[in-house]
Amino acid sequence: MKLRVSAVQYHLHTIGSFQQFAAQVTSYVRTAEEFESDFVLFPELFTTQLMSIGRGDGSGEALQIGELPQYTRQYKELFQGLARETGMHLIGGTHIIEENGRLYNTAFLFYPDGRVAEQRKLHITPWEVKGWNMAAGDALQIFDTDKGRIAILVCYDMEFPEIVRMARARGADVIFCPSCTDDRHAFHRVRYTCHARTIENQIYVVATGTVGSLPTVDFMRGNFGQAAIITPNDVPFPPGGLMTAGEINDDMIITGDLDLALLYEVREKGSVTTWRDRRTDLYPDWK
């Protein structure tokens, strides 16, 4: 089984309406459609761009994070419509939703048939708590698609090997990682751990991040991002485990083909067989 994936390095800039946001999203999706992609990944927190619209009172002030959920319906309708029209699976980065007075940083998977699934971010960074009072999700979701079984783990989640091990144990062959990082240190923490997770679990990881700046939006003024398609580091794959990557901090989209048969091959007879060789007699395994 092969699947083609695209990852968007989404350019954040100040906008004046939801229509401008929709036009930018549509442009990226149409580009991926021209490449006949099966999945399109957007970054974490890219819908914070909607906060730059403000309240329309002429003050020039951005919305606060607690006001972003007012766009949830329009955001979902936009991505549902594009998924249906293009026949692609769209991973709509993450969007902030509100439930019972709590805010959740939530990734959405939009299926071509109109279904919508979600994965809340499980590990919340200190600044998400201090700056935005964000709550953590409490369950790992695994998604079945007609192209294989996948998981979506958001940015900081990839820095915890246990949760990725759980996803692999439950059959995920591809992890999609929408991220948003503000400097080189944060970017490389996520990037290096994505590479580690592919080696430990013999899976693919598709990652991307935001680029550009939202000068009026708190905590979104700096972005350092790059999309990458990351593979296990073994002979059938590229040296260094990097299939392809974007130009750092450029507005662009990358595309690559994932061959699941190669994963199954290296799990059985690779140079190393890290998944099979786990010492579960010494440490707990995930079922």
UniProtKB/TrEMBL annotation:
Pfam family, one: CN_hydrolase
Domain CN hydrolase: 3-260
Keyword tags: Hydrolase
An annotated Gene Ontology molecular function: hydrolase activity
Keyword S-adenosyl-L-methionine: no
Family under the similarity heading: Belongs to the carbon-nitrogen hydrolase superfamily. NIT1/NIT2 family.
Protein's name according to its UniProt entry: Predicted amidohydrolase
Annotated source species: Paenibacillus tianmuensis
Lineage summary: Bacteria, Bacillati, Bacillota, Bacilli, Bacillales
